[in-house]
Amino acid sequence: MTRDRRRADSPPTKQVGIAEYAVVTDNTRLSTSGVGSCLGIVLRDGFNDVSGLIHVMLPTAAESRDGNPAKFVDTGLPLLIEKMVEAGASKRRLEGWVVGGSEMLSFSSDGDSIGSRNIAAAKQAFEHYGIDVAGTDVGGGHGRSIRFDPADESVVIQTADDNTTQTI
Amino acid sequence: MKVDIRELGQFNHLASQGAERAAESLSQLAGVQMDVDVTDVSLVTENVLAETFTDRSFVGVELGLEGGLEGETVLAFERERAMKLQDLLMGVTDNGDSEERLAKSSVTELGNIMIGGFIDGWANHLDTAINMTPPRYTEANGPRILPDQAIEAAKKHGVFLFESKLTGMDVDLDFSLYMLPEYRQFVQLLSGNDQGNQIPVNRLSTFEELAKEGAGNAADQIGMMTGLDTTVDVSRLRFVPLGGVPKQVGNDQFVGVVFELTGLPSGYLVVLFGEDSATTIANAMMPGGGAEEEIGEMTEGAIKELGNIMTSGFIDGWANVLQTSIEHSPPNFVHDMGESIMSPVVGKLGQQQDYAFVIDSTIEIDGNTGQCDIYALPNERELARALSALPARD
Known about the structure:
The structure holds two protein chains of two kinds.
Chain A: E1 13-15, E2 21-24, E3 29-35, E4 39-45, E5 50-56, H1 73-86, E6 95-100, H2 114-129, E7 132-138, E8 144-149, E9 154-159, E10 165-167
Parallel strand pairs in A: 1-3, 6-7
Antiparallel strand pairs in A: 2-5, 3-8, 4-5, 4-6, 8-9, 9-10
Chain B: E1 2-4, H1 5-30, E2 34-44, H2 46-53, E3 57-67, E4 71-78, H3 79-90, H4 98-101, H5 104-126, E5 130-132, E6 136-141, H6 148-156, E7 159-168, E8 174-181, H7 183-190, E9 198-200, H8 201-226, E10 230-241, H9 244-249, E11 253-263, E12 267-274, H10 275-285, H11 297-322, E13 326-328, E14 332-337, H12 338-349, E15 355-365, E16 370-378, H13 380-388
Antiparallel strand pairs in B: 1-9, 2-7, 2-10, 3-4, 3-5, 3-6, 4-8, 7-8, 10-15, 11-12, 11-13, 11-14, 12-16, 15-16
C-alpha cells in the first residue's frame, strides 16, 4: 500500500451533493446520488475539456427566501456556466444532459410536483442560454444516481429498479 | 438563554467550510483527495455521546481553543483507518505489524495542520483571535476520545457537538472532525435579535427527550403489531444543512412511508426499513398469510398500516408537550434508494429553509435482525415558535 496506489487507468470520482456543483478540466468523473425530484445537470465543452455537474433542488430562486444559487435551476445553471467559463469553457460550445425530476411523493397540499416544475425550468433555461441537449432521462416515480465520465462523454444512470443502469 | 437558528446555521456553515479547508490541507500533505460528506451540529447529552461513540476505538489529535472561541477540537480516526492514513503519509507497505509503527508525531502534525485550517474561518467570522493550545495525541475507546470537560458539560446541560465527516475519493479512508465549543460562551455567540428565529436553549433538549419518547411509542407499536422485540437504539436531534439530510440516510435500498405533517409544527416524517426488515415485518404482521419473498403488495399494505400507527404515536407526544395540534397525511409508500427518497422531502422544506432540524431514531427489531429508521423534519421556524410559546419551566 503506497501513496501511488491509485491506478492510472481509473480516474478519480468527484461526489457532488445536493445544492452543490463541481467543475473539472480533466478526466475526473462527476457523480451525484439521491436525484429524486431534484435534477442533476451536466454541462460539457468537449473542445476545451471542461465539464460541470450541478445538483439543483427547486425550479426558481424567487419561490424561496434563501440565497444559495446552486439550489435552484434558474440561478444554478448560469452559476455553473460562469464557473465553467472561468475554467476555460466557451459558452457556445456547451452541451448538456438533464436527469431526474421524478414524482415520488404526492401530498394533498401540492399543486404541480417539484419534479415536473424542475424539468420545465431546465427546459426553459437550456433554451435561454442556447445549450444543446445531448441527452435526458427525466420524470417517472423513481430515484436516480448519475455519473458523468468526461473521457467518453457518457452519463451513466443507476436506478433502484432491479439495480439497472443505462447510459445516455 | 436563547439561540438564534440563523446564527446556528452560520456556525454550521463555518464548520463546513473549515472541514473543506482541512480536506485541502490533507490533499496537499498526503496527496489524498477527500470529500466532506456532511457537517452537522447537535446539542447532545452524555447518553447520546455514549451511544455515538460506543464500541469504537479511536486515534485522535486533540487541541484546545482559547480567546474568541473557547472549547476543544478533536480530529478522530477509527484506529484501523489511522494506520491507513499513516501508510499513505509514509509511503510504507502494510505488513500487518503497523500498530507498532504508528508514528504519533506524523499523525499529530497532520491533525495540527488540519485543525488549523478548520479554525481559520471562525476567527475571521468572529473578528477576533482564536489561539490553539499545542496538539495532543490521544487514543481511546468510546467517548473518552473526547475531552473530559466536554463529557462533564454533557452531563450538566448538554454540549454542542459539531461533526464533519470526511471520506476519501479514491482511497478507503474516512475520519471525523469534532468541535465542542465551551457551552456558555457559545450560547452567547448564538444569541441573536430576531425573536421569530429564537429557541430557548433548554427547550432544545426538551425536544430531544420528546423525540426519544416518540420513537419509544413507535417501537412499541411495531412490537404490538408483529410480536417482535423492539428497542430504541439512538435518538438524536441534529441541525443539518438541507443538502446533508439525504447523505445521512445513505443510498441503500429502503422500503418505507413518507408523511406530511400539518399543524404546529408542520413538516415531514419518514419511516424507513431495510428491504429484509420490511419483509420480516410484513410476514410477522400476517402470520399464516401468503408470505412474500420480494417487496410486493402485501408488504406495501403492511408497511403503510404500521407506518400510520407509528406516526400517530410519534407525533402525539409532540402535540401533548407543545400543546398544539398536529395531523398527518395518508402514507406515501416508497421503495427506492435512501437519498432519492429524501430528495423531494428536502425539496419541499427547501422552499422555506436552508437548514433542518432532523430527529433521527433507530429502532432495532428482533435483536439485530431488523432495523427501522425514523426521520422527523419539522419546519424550523414553526418549531422555534412552538417551543418558544411553551410556558417557562424551572
